[in-house]
Every structure is written in C-alpha cells, then in structure tokens.
Amino acid sequence: MASSPSTSSSSSGSGSVGNLDSALEIKTRSVEQTLIPLVSQITTLINHKDKPKKTERTLRAIQKVGQAVSIAVGRFVTVGEAIAVENEELKEEMGLACFEARRAGDAIAQLTDVVSAEQPELDGRATIFSDKTAMVKAARMLLSSVTKVLVLADRIVIKQIITSRNKVLVTLDQLETVSSFQEFVQIFSHFGNEMVEFAHLTGDRQNDLKDEKKKARMAAARAVLEKCTMMLLTASKTCLRHPDCESARINKDAVFHRMRFALEQVIEIVTDARPGGDAQVLPVNIYSGIKHFKGKVESLRDELYALTPETLHSHLEGIGEQTQDFTDSAYTSHEHRESILQLCHAARQELQQVVCDWTYAQSLKAKEATEEMELSILKTCQTVSELRRELHKAAVGRATDLLKCHKDHIVLKALKGSGGEGNLEAVAEYSHKLTEQKEQLVETCRLLRHISGTEPLEITCIHAEETFQIIGPQIISAAQTLALHPSSKIAKENLDVFCEAWESQLNDMAILLREINDVFEGRRGDKKMYLSLPRPGKHSANLKMAKAAKLDAEEQTTIAKLGLELRLLTSDVDSESEKWEDREHEIVRQGQSLSSMAYSMYLFTRGEGLLKTTLDLFHQAEMFSEEGFQLCSSLQALTSQLEEEEHTVILLETEKLVALCQQLQVTARTAVQGKTAMFQKVDSSIQNTKSIMTVVVYLLPLLNKLIRKYKSELSSLGSPQSWKDKQCPVKEDSLNSKNTNGFGVRALEHHMGSLTFLESK
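Structure tokens predicted for Alpha-catulin (761 residues):
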C-alpha cells in the first residue's frame, strides 16, 4: 500500500490542503468521497474573509463548526482505535494516525473557540483570527491523519478479500483430490458459500476502484470465476463417475487451472502486485497508435522544432504494420482490404507533404506553422481518421456477420447429438468445425481490440479472446467424454454446461460490440445505476416480513443467464431512446428509468452493483413495476390522440404492460420461505422484468414514429398546440437515483458521515 501521508505544516496558504493525492495515493472512490466534504469545509474555514467587523452570529457559527469537527473526529477515531485492536499488524500505524487526528480535531476546536464579537481574543489565546498559520497546520494534520486512517482501514478490506481467496483455494484443493461423491457434495456445498462471499467482496471492490482499467480486469476475472464454478461442479462429477476417462480428466484439470489463475488475477488487482513486480502493459492497438500519431502531427502547429521527421515516419509505419492484422486476415473482404491499403498509402503521401512544408517553414525561421503546413496537417489527420473509420467498419462488420452465423449454434447441437449417439467419428468432425469457429472468433476479438476505443473495452476484448481460446478445447474434451460414455447423464450435463458458457460468451461479445460502436459514435457514457432502497413508511410491512438471502453458486449461474438477456434488452432500450429527437420526452425518460433499474438487476445476477441480497432485488422489482405503471399512464393519455388503428395497437401493448407490471408487483410482494421458493421468486422477478423490457423495446420505435408523424401533421396545419404540449408532466421522483459506495468498513463510513454536518453551513 501507499506510504504514510505527510503531516508537515505550511504557512503558505490553504490551497494545498485539498491536494491529498500528492501525499498519499487514494485508489478507491469511497475513501475519496468520504474525504470530499471534510476537505471542502475545512478549506472554507481557512479561507474565511477577515472582516473588520465580526458579528456574534459569525462567531457562534465558527465556534459551532469547530466543536462539531472535534466531536465527529473523536467518534471517528474511536472506531479507528477499535479496528486497531482487532488487527494487530496495523495497531501501531493506526494508533499513531488516530492520535494525530484527535490532536488536530482538538486544535481546530480551540482555534475556533472565539468568545464575543467585541473581544474574540480576550484571554490572549490564539484563534482562527489571530493565527491563520496554526489553523492551516491543524487542518493539514487532520486531513492527513484521517486519510491515513481510511487507507489503513482499506487495507482491512484487502485483507478480507485475500483471506476469502485463501479459503476458496484450500477448498479448491480438497475438491480436486476428493474420491467419493458423498464427500464431494459436502465440500462443494461449502465451496459454493465461500465463492458467494468472495463474489460479493470482490464486487464491492470492483465498484469502488477509481482506475477503469483495474475495474475492467476485475470484471473479467470475476466473470471467469462465475462461469467456472458451474463447470467445476459438472466436470468434477464426470471425473468421479468415469475415473479412468482421460478426456474427462483433461476437462476437469483445465477448469481448476483457470479458476486458480483467475483467483490470482483478482489478488494482483487488489494488491497492485504482479509477478516480477511489473505493471501490466496492454498490447499496442491501432486506435491508440492513430490517436498518438495525430497528437504528434497537430503539435507541429505550435512547436516546429520539438520533433524530427523520422519520429513521425516511424509512428506511421508502426500503424501500417498493425493494419496487417486486417489486410492479412482471410476473413477481411477484398473491398475493405483494398480501401485499407489505399488509405495507408495516402497517409504516407500526406505525411511526406507535411514534412516538406515543415522543412520549408523551418528554413524561414518561422515560429509557427505556415498556411501550407496547416493545410497538409489537416489532410494528414483527416486521412488517418478515415483509416480508423475503415478499420472500424471492417472489424465490426466481421464480428456482426460472425455472430449472425453462429446464433443458431448448429455445431454445438451437432456435437451434443453425435456425442449422445457415441459417434466418435462425428464428434471428431464437428470438433474440427468448432476449432475453425474458435479461430475465427479469436481473430475477430483481436481486430475488435484494435478499434475498441478505450482501455477497459480493450481489456474486455482480450478477455473474450482468451475465453474462446480456452472454452473451445474444453467443449471438445467434454464431447469426447460423452461419446465414450453415451448413456452417462452427468457427461451429457457437463457438455451442456460448457456449451452454455460458449453461448454466454457470444452474448457478451454482442454487448461488447454495441459498446465499441457507442464509443466510436460518441455515445459513450457510464451506465447510471438506479437503486431505491427501503424508505421509512413505504412498503414497510412487506419488508419487515422478508428476510434477505443469498443464492448459492449453482443458482447464481442459472440467474446469470437471465441477467445477460436482460442486459441486452437494456442496451436495446438505450439504443432506441437515442433515436428520439426529444430526449426529454416523458416516455423516453420513463423508458430510461426502467432501463436503469433493469441494469441494476442485471448487475445483481453477476454479484455486482448495489443490490446485495434478494431483499434488495425484490424491492427494486417493486419499484420497477411502479415505474412501469407510470409508463402505462403516459401511454393511455397518448392513445386518446391517436387514430383508431394506431389507438388499438398501442392500447393492446399497454394492457399487456399493465398485466406484466401487476404480475411483477405481486411476485415481489409475496412472502416466501425456503431456499427453493426463494430461488423461484428471484427467477420469476427477473423473467417478468425481461418481459416488461421486451414490450418497452417494441413500443419505443413505434411511438417515436407516431409522434414524428403527428408533429409533422400539426406543423403543416399550423396548429398552435404542439404535440409536446399535450403530454403529461414528468414525475421527478420516479427519475431520481440514489448513489452509495462499496467501501467495506461500514463503521468508519458511518462515523465519517458525521463530518458532513459542515455541508449545511
């Protein structure tokens, strides 16, 4: 972890108070967000204006703030000291940080303890008015020590993740060497609970990380663990049933190896440690290369003498070499290949013209680019941008075609069929075809990586490539096992699980493709998370009866499949919403609100996000149904303005939506007992949510078309009342979302919250 923060004082002013990262690297949003109110308000205290006339009201406010800071810090320190007692390895550091925080809080209370407006320094003590340097020193010490306490507490979170990982590894070793079914069932049940705990701890950490690359790497590693848990179950059972089968052993060994590797990846991310101590360096991609090259060329406008022509030629040649991944591919169309080669050639010619104009400008001793040079710079940048566009079209087109080609999963079905028949020859034939598919998908993922547009998406492309590379051979070994034992139900189940993982990765690839397109078209934005946690007085009876529960590993795998389908529907809603001219239209906003809530439910299926338990999920489902009813009201108001045929279509869909929302609401509010009933309730809630989202996806483009049509007619008739004026007002409450963080040390969070009293000052 980072070193101790500096606590040295400074009399140079308060501007440095808020510069926390320079003294101590803060890697999580929760620590950063916890400190922001304190930084902001302490800075306000220090920067107060020394007015000649100090009123009683001002002095009372300053004194109250100082006392409250001292009390809040005292409570905060008490929690920190309790953590120190429980964690011997941090006792000394935490104790020192707590001591400094308490001392700084007391100093601020004394400095703000002003008596009266007439004689604020009557007893000769130093105050905020007489000794600004002392106030700055106390503030810096407080911020530094509080930050240190928070970061030390964050180490406890990391320790929890490492401890959880170690427990998983121990149980994993036991599972690998188990020799009886009865023993395996007992150990796997324990393993499932440990994996659920690990999933929630790492999910919180993933949400809390500031570094987007680390978040993407964590998401990839957790996705592997999520999918491998079910594979481990069936692969191990198959090995126990058929202990002498070599293909079954190979299949099982590959799963255990991949799980261990993913567990190590998670620990590398949370501890910032990599084998050999080197940070992960991503492969260079064309998108980054073009961006870097354009930056260098454009910098010539202001600085003619900082670069050499050889540097620019070298950069462009590097981009040209990378385009060979496209031009050398057997799957790139002749048209795309020719266009890419022509644009590379054009870019070289344009750069040569830049160099000529640049050299001439230097000969004139010019201080900035000439008009001719400016023109050649623009042409060069335009050409490489066109090259990037052409590469994007080639990669996305290839991926789209491939996904369409494999959407029916013909080869997987053939492998299952021939394996079940015990036809080893047919299994070998279809295994060869699957290997060809795998190679096509792997190469396509490499092309997508080149044009991904962001480092997190590039990491996701690499993860997809690795997944296809690994699961392909695992499907083949599972199919071989079934062919050798065609009557084995467990061997058939095992093959089904690996085939489902392949299908799931294809779904993930479709989502990835949409996100890459969003970046390319400038629509990229972090998906907002909607969380409506229980509020006093609302649905309280239902919530008191319900008990929060967590699903086991097998159930989570089943629910995860539903979640992926739900995620695709949220993307469809977002895509259709983008097509509306009026993005603030009530129906669009309600659709987006439903999409956001559905997205948080999707994250629940992955063990991520802000919905932690089934209780959270059911409350979210209830809020989702209420928002659905609001959308139905808007639709009913709109149908009164439609012609009979259009009115009938929208009315039918609205009635369907009402019925689905009622069904979801009843499901969410129905109390259940027992593990099986709870799982069925989760399954029904997500299934109903999917059905509602399907109707919304159907309605959005239809309504967009109708509203455009009526706007056009109203415009041609010169109607004084526009379509928008006829709409019902938007309910603001339905669109508000709550934001919380994933910081694990809840007690510290709670007591640091005391410091936000300053926000109202």
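DSSP finds 23 helices and no strands in the chain.
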